[in-house]
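TEACHING EXERCISE
Course module: macromolecular assemblies
Task: Read the component lines below, then compare them to the predicted structure of the full complex.
Student: A.B.
Group: 4
Components provided:
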Amino acid sequence: MRQFITFVKKEFAHILRDKKTLLILFGMPISQILIFGFALTNEVKNVKIAIVDRARDEQSRRLISKIDASKYFEVKKILGNAVQVDNELKKGTIKMAVIFPANFSSDLAHYNTSQVQIVLDGSDPNTANTIKNYITAIVTDHQRQQQSNVPALYQIIPEVRMLYNPQLLDAPNFVPGVMALVLMLVCVMMTAVSIVKEKEMGNMEILLVSPIKPGMVILTKTFPYLVLSLVNLTIILLLSIFVLKLPVNGSLVLLFAESILFIITCLTLGIFISVKTSSQEVAMLISLMGMLIPTILFSGFMFPIENMPYPLQMISNIIPSKWYYIIVKSIMIKGLGFSAIWKETLVLATITSVLLAVSLKSFKIRLE
Amino acid sequence: MEISVSVNQLLKSYTKGEKTAVNHVSFEVKKGELFGLIGPDGAGKTSIFRMLTTLILPDGGNASVNGLDIVKDYGKIRMSIGYMPGKFSLYPDLTVEENLGFFATLFNTRVNENYHLIKDIYEQLAPFKNRRAGKLSGGMKQKLALCCALIHNPPVIFLDEPTTGVDPVSRREFWEMLKRLKDQGITIVVSTPYMDEATLCDRIALIQEGQILSINTPKNMVSHYPDQLFAIKADNMYHLLKIMKTYKNVLNIYAFGEYAHASFREDMDTNELYRYLEEKGFRDILIIPAKPTIEDCFIKLLNN
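Instructor-supplied answer key:
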């Protein structure tokens, strides 16, 4: 026990005395949450648009004011013709133009149907799609309001309810992703580098020529990172609750318990990398290339797994962060209990035990 | 006399047997002896140390430390030896005190339990005990490393080139410490590329390209030097070395400090050589009989 405490103390001294490590350790989660929360957002707000109103009548004006009143759009320009629209789109001053034909109202009155042309800047397809959906919704809504005084013959109204994330905010999606990402980075990279550093500096040579057991070395090397990761996790959760206004719907205890399991998975991965490499640079590269990129690609946090080709979906199953991402989303956003996520937990636990067995077995008791 | 380290036909090769680093090396170290492995870089000293400290496995032969086999009983050996690798291997970001405390704990002991062993050495370090190990001078680092290797009172310590990169004053101090440790009954196996340090050992093994050339006490080694040795000096040393190669009966001629050392097979007439060198145009000629050193023995052995 005295050995354990001394070892852990020494490990903390390594971490706390290295300013760069500290900066990565605590600067990264905070900056990631803030960057994802405020800068990298897919949400569309106050899109600048232009209107070409050839009709200039009551109907068109009513629709225009409805569009302008929505928080999604801001009418920036009233233009005279389609050529001007083209110029403005090219300059990038507007993202969309709504063009009303001269006979907008009369067509409505006589044929019960009329057209509005929507011109979009398609160079950013995601945004264009979102804008398109919003404008279509506004037009449909407007149409329904107009019809409400006339009894319709036949009408099906889809009543859409977005559960768990009614405003379709980004935060519920990326906070679990950032949690997986940060824990992965901190635990895998930091442990791998710290063990390889002992090898590189020659410290391992002395540690080996001593009565200490390999298991003890591994345990004491990883324990401080478990503690620091929990601190990190708390920071992320506090930021998400108080800055991003995203509460934890499920049990906080369960969330921490599952996080500890994932942290242990990452730590064993870090040990595994450190056992197989002999320089800090290689360890760092493998951690980044081999862990960070699969986490971004296959956890489902950036790209939906359901849309991937089948072989890639299979690969995603061995990425621990995918399971953790599902677990965190279930607890944080949906507020589910353990009964809903026991399968994912089991998968994560299996991956961990396999990795732990392999790395303990391949931990070298000699130099070669 | 009890045997502390016994090495028998030890063999080690690297890169799939292509490069033989240790070639059938055998020697014995008695209990309480200060034994030196003397040889240039790449002679195989570190490989021998690593095999004896159970860090690498030999490809052939066997060895024992304190009667324990280096392959089978590696766990027991690790508990009962002190090892100081050639490269400074303490934690540079921990202070002197923390390093010592850490290594004491590593070996399940406390600093004050064996403080008497390291007292002399540690007192020199004490003024810097709150300094980070990485900020110490080369000599201080080695003293600290020695303290850490001794903290669990091991009966045998292995020191791999402890004085490489250390200033002459610290080197002398370091060897004085080794003498004191030896007096306390600790067996010391030390390697060094410095020939002048060889005389400070009880017995030495001269090693070159993985093979032991000779094992003896430093005194015996120099007294058994078979040839006539002279130190020669003149105004043009570079030319002197070249000319002397062709002189009759010369076995070896090499630079040795400010002199050239020349060894001869049989009695050499100093006056004749003096005249010969004068004829060749040398000035300020000085020829004096020289006492052979370990380095002279080493060169003699290398040229055989």
